[in-house]
Amino acid sequence: QVQLVESGGGLVQAGGSLRLACAASGRIITSYPMGWFRQAPGKEREFVAAISWSGGSTSYTDSVKGRFTISRDNAKNMVYLQMTSLKPEDTAVYYCNRGEGYSGSYYPSGSWGRGTQVTVSS
């Protein structure tokens, strides 16, 4: 069983930046794809970004392409989400996920963190 803990959220003005981090423990994530999701109030959880186990392949939802960057440090069991040019519509709770597969599409597992709140003011 893997435990995931997100951090780095906060309140930021539109146009600002944040870097989210996801720390994994209990079981290494080296051989698994990893993903970030978000859930805004009253909305369903949605995919944001994913990265292959090696870090060599990444994918993003259209609304964050060019603004967000996902990365990982397998030696530290960490996954990151660098967010720039933030918009009010990026406001949500952001969750880290250990994936089950990543072949064209990202397949999430049931392993989720508790999330970190990102609030972007206009």
Structural class: mainly beta
What is the CA-based Rg, rounded? 13 Å
- The run of helices and strands is EEEEEEEEEEE
Q: What's the helix count?
A: 0
Mean pLDDT: 94
Strand content: over 45%
Characterize the overall form: globular
Per DSSP E runs of 2 or more residues, the count of β-strands stands at 11
- Low-pLDDT segments: none
Percent helix: under 10%
Task: Let me know the largest β-sheet.
Answer: 7 strands, mixed
Distance between the termini: 40 Å
Q: Would you kindly provide a written description of the structure presented here, covering whatever features stand out?
A:
Strands 2, 4, 5, 6, 9, 10 and 11 form a seven-stranded mixed β-sheet that branches. Strands 1-3-8-7 form a four-stranded antiparallel β-sheet, with no helix packed on it. The mean pLDDT is 94. It contains no helices and eleven strands. 0% of the residues lie in helices and 57% in strands.
